[in-house]
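Mods, move this if it's the wrong board.
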Amino acid sequence: MKSEPGLHPLLVLFLAPTAGALVTLSLAPFHLWPAGIISCALYAYLLCTCSVREGVWRSWLYGLGMFGSGVSWVYVSINDFGGAGPALATFLIVLFCVGLSVLFQVSFGWFYVRFVRALPGGMLVGFPASWVLAEWLRSWLLTGFPWLYLGYAHLDTPIAGWAPVVGVYGLSFVCALTGVCLFLAWRSRQAVACATYAVIVITLWAGGAVLKPIEWVVKGSEKPLSVVIFQPNVPQEHKWDPDWYQPILRQLREASEPHYGADILVWPEAAIPNFYQRARSFLDPIDERAAANETTLFVGVPFMAEQGEGYYNSVTALGEGSGVYHKQHLVPFGEYVPLEGLLRGLIAFFDLPMSAFSAGPLDQAPLRAGPFRVATSVCYEVVYPEMVARSARNSDLLLTVSNDSWFGRSIGPLQHLQMAQMRALENGRYMIRGTNNGVSAIVDHRGQIVSRSEQYVEATLKGEVNVMLGNTPFGTFGVTPVIASCGIALLLMNLMYLAFWREDR
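Not the wrong board. Structure tokens:
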């Protein structure tokens, strides 16, 4: 394949996937946040003068590096719990990463090189704006896979101050723009140009540092709420085994007994491996026990639909609490099977336990913990910025329950926790996170972990949360301002090109 002078095809073959893999290194559990900025600088370099065809090829390699390193934990789900052997699991995960790279990264590279790069400010503004739009596209196209966003790496950097204003997409923009400025400064090597790019970067990072101490929300009461999270650590291979049903119930009952009296007690996603309607003989006495001690117990338990067929992955509030939340955003193959008529029965992965859930309605009232409103998300839902912001606007606390056993001993659970932290920071709300095998955590309204459990152990995590009032700018407006700004920026650049730049040339 033809390459521009000075950039050998073998160098491209090494550099592009390496640059993509740097995104993964910037995120949890590695936390090497400069790696994401370097990744953008290298990617801008790879796409700076290449043809459209070369841009597609290099973007595909970049995507393979990013998705291949960043979502490798999917192999654990397919091999360990999906019944697929190593060869088949490897084939499926390669197919998955190739598909993601083609669908999203190749689309980005083609669009950027073909339509954006030649515009006035095409690299300086167009690259980060196109990157953000590509991340946003990844959040909803084909049900969405909003993983590996650049902005997640910056929970603890100065630009975290922008998160309550512009959310994770805004942080991704700043990160990408910083990388582009580094590349442009290196390429120009002229004092005036380098100073200009330095001013842009310093302004953005200093602006984040100025915003960081601002309290966008206030405490709703002087007395914090006491919270207890029980992490049962039930092995995934035994979760739906009928022989384990009674031992699981006994474990939940005995572990929770000393903690009635706490304001909030949490059991994780699908803590009860049975339908709520069929587990009433166990749950009704628990409900009475919690109510007598003025404790709200949040329980992850499947619900059968009241009318017709189907069932939901749900969370219900017992004792002092009230309400039921049915999960809205289901995980393909884990909770429902696309093209079910064709795929069911082919391999065990397409017949996982409880893989025929129905999606809950979009408009659901928040759960209640006494007088307080609790915005709830189940597992995968917490990675959707707009979805959590929408539910957080009229709530006092955030709750997410998960069963990260599907990820095994991989980087997946720690990436998942990092995204939950970002939701707390974006919305200015404490986040209670209850999981089956870790990491369970209490996160404050600034996205910082107050207390957390170890992984792969049975644990009882105790802590306190504050009820917060008011909304952050991001909590009020969601992702719309950032996405619209990126789209408008690209439109204005096109108009400038048509009106002035093109004539001059």
